[in-house]
Amino acid sequence: MDIRELQDDELVAQARDWRQRALRGEKDARGFAHELEREVRRRFPRNDAPHALPPMNLLGAVPHTPQRRWKPW
Fold first, then answer.
1. Residue 11 — very low, low, confident or very high, per pLDDT cuts 50/70/90?
2. Which of 24, 46, 62, 64 gives 20 to 30 Å between its CA and that of 31?
């Protein structure tokens, strides 16, 4: 089976199926599941970086809220 010729839906289903086989302990399923998952990541890259980064503050400039102290009385 050529992984690159699989349709997107079929690829995702095969990756899920082979990962389940690997988790059940099937001997050679782990490597094939990894190959399928790698192709899924290649086709559908996840960009977790935010589009606009929040402004940076220096450590000395970070507003410090006073901590509540425990009162023994």
1. very high
2. 46
Instruction: Please check the confidence at residue 47 and state whether its pLDDT lies above 80.
Output: no
Q: Between vectors from CA 35 to CA 31 and to CA 40, what angle results, nearest 5°?
A: 145
Q: Domain map of the chain by residue range?
A: 3-45
Nearby residues of 48 by Cβ (< 8 Å), 6 or more positions away = none
Q: How many CB atoms lie within 10 A of CB 57?
A: 9
pTM of this prediction? 0.61
Exposure letters 4-40 (e unless 16+ CB within 10 A, then b):
eebeeeebbebbeebbebbeeeeeebeebbeebbebb
